[in-house]
Amino acid sequence: MHARPTALLHAAVLASTLLGAIAPLTLAPPARAAAVLPAPDTLVLPDTPAGDAARAWIKAVESGDADTLRSMIETVFDAGFRDDYGVDQHLKMHQAILHEAPRFHSLARADARKVVVYAEVGHGWGEIVIEVSPRAPHGIVGISLQQSDGPNIKPAQRAADDAAFVKAMDARLDMLADDDNFAGTVLVVRGSATVYQAARGLASRRYDAPNTIDTRFNLGSANKMFTATSIAQLAESGKLAYDDTVGDHVPDFPNKDIRDTVTIHHLLTHTSGMGSHFTDEFMQGSKRTYRTLHDYLPLFQDEPLAFEPGERFAYSNAGMFVLGLVVEAASGQDYYAYVREHILEPAGMTRTGHFDMDIPVKDLATGYYKVSDEDLAAEADNDAPWKTDAGPWRENTFLHSIKGGPAGGAFSTCPDMARFSRALRDGTLVSPDSLATLTKGKSDMGGPDAMYAYGFVEQHTNGFRSFGHSGGFPGITAFFRVYPDLDLTVVVFANAGSGAAIDRALTASIPDLEP
Q: Helices (DSSP H) in 372-487: which residue ranges?
């Protein structure tokens, strides 16, 4: 927000202290709730010159469009205020406003020359003060931001907010599904209450079977959380320590560097220097031979470390397979049996498991991706990555593992993953201290808002902390996030199209779902 030097704060001070660094004008603003999921119709402005000016300003800000903002500045701002800084400088200030993605909520108060609006800005509530000139045409002469405790949202308003959220999400899902850009399920749970659930598209295009909320989807990498939780349980019971080396538990592991220098901490944080099992040999060969953890070892066990363990973050599926071996050695159980007995069963996840894909399982979604004949031929020669924007829908059956493992590939449902969220936080699976250890960010992933923890990713969205893990592969999209301060769990699965688009819409709306 900004104002004349005589107002609450000088524009430059406001931009730097309240709204963060000014984003370049050529960049589009980040995804924001108003652009995807409008707030409830609670913002009613007075029919006064101040109300009219505030209405025009808010509309321009919500557009997120530089040309619309420029036009508004040129026509709605008082000429003196506009020329004090120049249109370009005002635009830069507004880009800072867009960077913080304000959510305009409701009218706080108003008089003849001022309108004060509640808005969610950054990490909390603020009051935006819009002041107009007393002289016609009553242009804007100042815009400032004050800290605020925010409006007192009543239960009835919360219900209205939830209803608006459901309506907006239904509309977005319908739009994507109608365009054949999304097939999957969505679940949002607050406490023990379901705020939103939906299913769209087909689980099987071959048999015209629809997705339902109980359809089982491939988790992709999201079930790395199961492996990490297993490690935390074994640490709690004293059967291992995070600074143990691989060799402490798997003394016959053939790679000496991995055996002697890589620790459980390195494996959990993807700082081991190991790579992936998705090698040329795996991708070009038959997947049916990879059913046990040891079946995968020849794909990576002799590969040298890419860097000194602990030096930096580099995502490693192979490291997760080694963690699976550690689970087996420390527990004395087969990895799959351990996860089933110590995670899935205690959490009540009866529809989740690591399934052999050549054995029929009911309600299992088939993954679909798009690729042209030309790109498919290039893939066969290993000369091109998958492209998911052209060609017919193809099943991913021959691309992925025949059985999921410690790095990914288990199947689950939205309700089961909500049960996993609850079991993590109520002490069923791990202690509060262990959960904090699992979900506290430790490795810089190269992004501004996310840190890799122990098989979980810690993020901060709209001022709220969350943890979880995503999963992605041709025909597989999975998002799982828990907002502990809001007692909120968000699960998105897709077996075709852009589950990421749904996740972004949900992420942008998180303040609307605050208890």
A: 373-380, 414-425, 432-439
- How far, CA to CA in Å, does 392 sit from each of 24, 181, 389, 408? 39, 13, 9, 26
- pLDDT tens digits along 472-481: 888 899 999 9
Instruction: Say which amino acid occupies 368.
Output: Y
Q: Which ranges in 301-454 belong to alpha helices (H)? A: 317-331, 335-339, 345-347, 373-380, 414-425, 432-439
Two tokens, residue 352: 């989740």
Q: Beta partners for 369?
A: 394
How far CA 450 is from CA of 272, 463, 468, 510, in Å, comes to 19, 13, 11, 16
Render pLDDT for 484-505 as a digit per residue (tens, 0 to 9). Answer: 988 899 999 999 876 666 766 6
3-state SS assignment for residue 188 = strand
Query: Rounded CA gap, 159 and 172, in Å?
Result: 20
CATH code, 11-152? 3.10.450
The tokens for 136 are: 């016609």
Q: Does domain 171-513 have CATH number 3.40.710.10?
A: yes
Q: Quick check: 13 pLDDT over 70?
A: no
Q: What is the DSSP string of 4-19?
A: -TTSSS-HHHHHHHTS
Domain boundaries, given as residue ranges, for the chain: 11-152, 171-513
> Would you state the pLDDT for residue 515?
59
Across 119-123, 347-351, 370-374, least confident range: 119-123
